[in-house]
Amino acid sequence: MIKSIQPKVFIVIPVYNEASVILDTAKEIENAGYDNVIIIDDGSTDNTYNQAKKTGKIVLQLALNRGKGAAVKTGIEAAKILGADIVVTMDGDGQHDPNDIEKMINLIKKGKCDVVLGTRLQNPEGMPKYKILANYIGNFFTWLIYGLWVTDSQSGFRAYSKKAFDLIDTQTDRYEYDSEVIREIGRHNLEYKEVPIKVRYTDYSMNKANKQSIKNGIKTLIKMLISS
């Protein structure tokens, strides 16, 4: 019997000052069955890079903190060079459950879509009310500027087919990157689906100094308007 060739899946993780959790995050992904992991240290000021190297995964380091978008794009370019067929992006702070990866990539494997967007708002159990409100506001402005309505425009947990990551061309480097991807989906008429994902809010993830804030949200909106 001839075995079917499985697509090569790479997990891309942007990190900034995640020294205390990156080992556990990488281990969880490995335990879920994914060995091709690229960690991009976005100019961390702590010991993130050295801790990431201990994972045994591919680790890239940006000399300066350029932003989440820049780190994700760097990781995707590396995955393309290494022959990826599917790229999954997820946050490095342990909020995302690697067990959700399978249902996301299966939609791409079966040819049902080009992009899978993990969404917290289809089942927001445990999600702080202010974050729910902030996400609805982000969704509204993403729709207003880019013309495509999604239920979680700020989610960093996504999966892309080769067709999608070859076509998507973003210009921004920071949090606005996630919304700009939505623009690219519409611009290239890419098929997309949304799937509910589990998010684990911890004291660590909720109290990070570099998390999204109202101030950063305003900056994100301004950059979205400029790049539209």
Features of this protein?
single chain, 228 residues, alpha/beta, Spore Coat Polysaccharide Biosynthesis Protein SpsA, Chain A, seven-stranded mixed beta sheet, 41% helix
Largest sheet: 7 strands, mixed
- Assign the CATH superfamily: Spore Coat Polysaccharide Biosynthesis Protein SpsA, Chain A
The rounded Rg comes to: 17 Å
Into which percentage range does the β-strand content fall? 15-25%
CATH architecture: Alpha-Beta Complex
What is the residue-mean pLDDT, rounded to a whole number?
89
Strand order of the largest sheet: 3-2-1-4-6-5-7
Q: What are the low-pLDDT stretches, counting only 5+ consecutive residues below 50?
A: none
- The CATH topology annotation reads as Spore Coat Polysaccharide Biosynthesis Protein SpsA, Chain A
Helix vs. strand class = alpha/beta
Helix fraction by DSSP (H/I, runs of at least 4): 40-55%
Terminal CA distance reads 51 Å
CATH class: Alpha Beta
Looking at the structure, what is the overall shape?
A: globular
Tally of distinct domains: 1
Order of helices and strands: EHEHEHEHEHEHHEHH
Number of helices: 9
